[in-house]
Amino acid sequence: MKSLYYVFNSWIMAFKYTVTDQNEIYFITTTVVGWIDAFTRKELVEVIIESLKYCQSEKGLIIYAWCLMPSHLHMIVSATEGKKLSDIIRDFKKFTSKKIIKTLGEINESREWLLDKFAFAARTNIKNKDYKFWQDGFHPIILYSNEFKDQKLDYIHNNPIEAGIVTEAEYYNYSSAINYAGGMGLLEVVYM
């Protein structure tokens, strides 16, 4: 049985980070359980990229900026009229979680402990059956001003620089920084 402290904190966090207006633009972050560096494998990155493309073409996801780091995904997003951003992200996380677990079983992954970690995370959460890949929630923060939008856009694009992965934001393949620098990125974006 969950402690009252856990239930209360979960409720507070859910209230603090919710999509309150489905028509607004949000900065969101979704993180792998335990901050595991899952996206060091190209096959797992491809699951995310293809899923985001599908969400754009079929579910109404509008991506303004994005950056897939080894353990988490940052995006600035909204939904097309009549669609719910919270539903799109929920479906994205559910699908990618299952697909990544399946892909891990198919590729020659040297980190055999990964599936054990994801299975352990599922056992500690009643919502999951066999594996839990993503942490709960996606921490949506509404972008209420142009200054705040610019701040989050810079934050997203500079994340790989801060992590020491690249020296220039547009050199990181798994980001929209290349789009904003005039190049052709992996995903189409709507410029802010």
UniProtKB/TrEMBL annotation:
One of its GO terms (molecular function) is sequence-specific DNA binding. Residues 21-159 form the Transposase IS200-like domain. It comes from the Bacteria. Pfam families: Y1_Tnp (PF01797). GO terms for biological process: DNA transposition. Gene3D superfamilies: Transposase IS200-like. PANTHER family: REP-ASSOCIATED TYROSINE TRANSPOSASE. This is REP element-mobilizing transposase RayT.
